[in-house]
Amino acid sequence: MELATKFDDLLIEASETDSSRMRRLRSEHSMAEYLKGNGAFAETVRGIVADVAERGDAAVAEYTRKFDKVELTASEFRVSADDLKAAHASLDAALLKSLRTSIANVRKYQSEIFIGTKNTHPGIRYTPLKRVACCIPGASAPLPSTVIMTAVPAQVAGVKDIVVLSPPRYEGSIHPVILGLCYELGVTEVYRLGGAQAVAALAWGTETIAKVDKIVGPGHDVVQLAKKECFGLVDMDSFAGPSDVLIVANEKANPAWVAADVLSQAEHDPGAGIVVTDSVNFAKKVLAELETQCDKLDRAAATEKCLLAYSGIVVCEDMDAVIDWANDFAAEHLQVQCGDESKAISEKLVNAGAIFIGPYTPVAVGDYYAGPSHTLPTRQTSKYFSAVTSNDFIKSTSIIEYTQQQLANAAADIVRLATTEGLDAHAKSVRKRVE
After folding, report:
1. Which of the following is catalytic: 28, 29, 289, 333?
2. Residue 374 falls in the annotated catalytic set
């Protein structure tokens, strides 16, 4: 292929299964490869979690001083009610209106898919978790929208105690929009804490921070490894990594729009935009657009570096091969831009955190507005993890009630099964009731 852009190395033939470029593309987004390469790092995080479990608030303050360069006493971990109220009062009126629309959309969607009110007896009973924590990226990369995407589903589920934790900025504060959103949603327990020490504090509990039942939300590798370390002590949503988008496209797509979507993910740095297409000609057009558009970005140099490290354009022999490649990759965000074929193709795609159908559904629609949570599985884990929903904040309890006659009818089978397993006491517990 004759190309002439600085992004030429992004173009990969799907048949290059053993090429260094294809191995790079796959390994950069593989959970297995990540875990294999981070043993020592995970051990460090394990030590932090154990220290917080042992020393509580003192350890939390120490690690906050070490990693965030902020001096906090235990009494300063929690943001005051006055600070939450002041942050809300400072919100721009137009921004607040947009935030409220986003909240309403998310609440409506999460209510419509909620199964927690569908109790049957006998059968199953759903109850909300009592206390959950939401990790909200802050400091140098604040994401206020994540407050909406985690706290609102929890509210829909009926969770009474919702905790927000976000790492402090250099002077010890949290981004005011994050605080203002917490006030708007009625979330009053907010901690200026981040990193493994914050996760451990919420998982184990300290002198000033009560233990939670579940921790959700994104964060850098330290946060995710800490969540993994604490899993079992508390529940968690998934093991998240750098954001990614995979775009399934054909000649009917607009290459300028596809390139813009790739760049929007690379802007996360690290973040990956991958295009899979059945057209070499279309792939060349996207490469040209990437070069033109990237040079005009405010963060052009960083975005270019991120593109070359994590992104790619894969050319397959036909659309069936494109679909197979996409299903195997298991993206966080999966866009389908194939003109009037988009809907039909999307129905064949099964592994993705969220699927965005058609040219007028960029990832940003899901990130901020549509209703589904933007807290999605990454690193190819959408094969078994799912987006955060209101249903992640409830637990189910099986309800079983037999009458005397029902037990009598089932007794012989139950006794036979228990006896087969050598559990004589189980069998006798039934016999005594029916003899």
Report:
1. 333
2. no
Q: Which DSSP helix (H) or strand (E) runs through 293?
A: helix 280-294
- Overall CATH class of domain 39-236: alpha beta
pLDDT band at 1 (very low <50, low <70, confident <90, very high): very low
> Cβ atoms within 10 A of the Cβ of 139, count?
17
User: Which one of the listed residues 184, 289, 304, 332 is annotated catalytic?
Assistant: 332
Q: What DSSP line would sit under 150-187, residue for residue?
A: HHHHHHHHT-SEEEEE----TTS---HHHHHHHHHHT-
Rg of the chain over all Cα atoms, to the nearest angstrom: 25
Question: Distance between CA atoms of 278 and 321, rounded to whole angstroms?
Answer: 8
Where does the chain hold its CATH 3.40.50.1980 domain(s)?
A: 8-32+241-385, 39-236
Q: Tell me what the mean pLDDT of segment 37-58 comes to.
A: 92
pLDDT in the model for residue 142: 81
CATH architecture group of domain 8-32+241-385: 3-Layer(aba) Sandwich (3.40)
- Is 88 noted as a catalytic residue in this protein? no
* Locus of tokens 């946060």: 223
Tell me how far apart the terminal alpha carbons of the chain are, to the nearest angstrom: 83
Strands of 131-135's sheet in order across: 189-191, 161-165, 131-135, 214-216, 235-236
Residues 6 or more apart from 19 whose CB is under 8 A from it?
A: 12
